[in-house]
Write a structure and sequence with these properties.
Layout: H1 2-30, H2 36-92, H3 97-121, H4 127-141, H5 148-176, H6 181-197, H7 205-229, H8 241-252
Helix pairs in contact: 1-6, 1-7, 2-3, 2-5, 2-6, 2-7, 2-8, 3-4, 3-8, 4-5
Length: 253
């Protein structure tokens, strides 16, 4: 937690420093106090760049939040699918439930203990988890229903296994779709250009305070975007809570 807080502080103070440095650099280059028409032009430039910059940050932040929430939803869906398969195997018949339950339980354990860390370190799914998933899939495929009830249970288990497969694919793509360096270039250049355009305002205490507030708030937004861009790594690492709970449930069952 301390490291994450320090990282947030670095983002905030970094953007504040970048803002002030850009402002004073422009003041030094231009020299003297600007005339009235220069202030009008600078205000117009500030307005236009700020609008575009704010739009970019808002769109990217919203996208990262949607993907973060989508991952939570997919994880809950996957946990529900695991529980359904486990208990549907029991409903199917005592003589066939053990291999299916063992495979799906081993799958859940591998996702929690191995895959989550693999996604954080390498951005890849665990091959062992796929092996356990395939083991459960093969066991369900080999079932020979004796009546309509068993046929329905078999179909439901296959459907849930497909749901798990889709959730896994989305989970990996979430890492692959992390923010490109082009965004950071656009975000930081926006901060610089906005600060440059403020050169027409004198460096009095109130103006500098407002510039610091602009830089600090931008730093907070950039930090949040960075935090949510990879949900498997700090500072906003998402724990596999639903999977852990369902694993405890089926282990006790």
């Amino acid at each position: 937690m301390i490291v994450e807080m320090l990282l947030g502080v670095v983002f905030v103070f970094g953007t504040v420093a970048l803002t002030l440095a850009s402002y004073f650099l422009m003041r030094m280059i231009m020299g003297g106090e600007p005339e009235g028409h220069e202030k009008e032009l600078a205000s117009s430039v500030i307005f236009r760049i700020s609008a575009l910059h704010g739009l970019i940050l808002a769109l990217v932040f919203a996208q990262e939040m949607v993907e973060y929430q989508q991952l939570k939803y997919e994880m809950a869906t996957e946990a529900g699918a695991i529980a359904d398969i486990f208990y549907d195997a029991e409903r199917y018949g005592e003589n066939v439930k053990a291999p299916i339950q063992q495979a799906i339980s081993a799958y859940a354990a591998e996702v929690i203990d191995g895959e989550w860390q693999s996604l954080a370190d390498k951005g890849r799914l665990s091959p062992k988890a796929w092996v356990h998933w395939d083991g459960a899939y093969q066991q369900v495929l080999n079932l020979v229903p004796a009546d309509k009830r068993q046929e329905s249970l078999r179909s439901q288990m296959l459907e849930r296994l497909h749901d798990i497969s889709q959730s896994r694919t989305k989970r990996e793509s979430n890492v692959a779709d992390s923010i490109d360096s082009i965004f950071w270039f656009a975000a930081l250049s926006g901060v610089i250009f906005i600060a440059l355009a403020y050169y027409s305002y004198p460096p009095v205490r109130r103006n500098l305070l407002l510039l610091c507030l602009f830089g600090a708030y931008t730093g907070i937004i950039l930090f949040l975007i960075y935090a949510f861009s990879n949900p498997y790594q700090p500072p906003a690492a998402l724990a596999p809570g639903p999977l852990e709970r369902v694993q405890q449930q089926i282990s006790g069952g």
